Amino acid sequence: MAELRDFYENPETPVSAAEDRTARIVGFLREIVATATEPLTILDVGCGDGGITRMAVDAAPGHRVIGMDWAAAPLRTASGKGLTVVRGGAAHPGLPVASGRVDVVIFSEVIEHLVDPDAAIVELRRVLRPGGHLLLSTPNLAAWFNRGMLLLGMQPVFSEVSMVHVFGRPGSSVAGHLRLFTLPALREFLLAYGFTDLIVRGASYHDVPKPLKPIDRLLRHWPAAAAILTVHARKPT
């Protein structure tokens, strides 16, 4: 685990959220806030440099928004933006939050980086109050362009075989992806851990070549083949 922590402390490791997936997550949050009858506690787990945390603050005025990450360097950047941040992660010994105290957990572009996503999702469910909301996004292994790349015998986008270099596919940025989901796998995973009322929306991928962006934007309306999966799920009451 020390090696992974060092990887995310590296300033060259990407920790910022991309625009379209962020818009989907914030859109879910706005819908939740619009029906709230009392102040919410919103926890952005794996907040990185605080990009989504900042947008959550703007989308939920009057509510409590906290960013959390296990890497100190991105947290310093987030803190410098005037955000409330706490150091911690879902790995052992777990989130430094009491059970049932959080109304909304944001978990955007995190699950694909985890050695043990099962333990993490159990922790997220633990800290949520009954009826609480999970807002999650992750790359789609079955994205439309990955289907074509596999037919050509190429390594799918988002997948990585090295923590140092990219091999077998376009791109040069190593993000540290360890787990990749298709829509059926993600749906089954969340349901197995007790989440319900799943709403799934696709999002486009910022790094698609410009000539292919119109296709990517069109296919985000078909979540099973969209580049990015965004999910709103509930903890049962």
Automatic annotation (TrEMBL):
GO molecular-function terms, A-Z: transferase activity
Name of a matching Pfam family: Methyltransf_23
InterPro entries noted in UniProt: SAM-dependent_MTases_sf (IPR029063)
Keyword list, A-Z: Transferase
Protein name: Uncharacterized protein
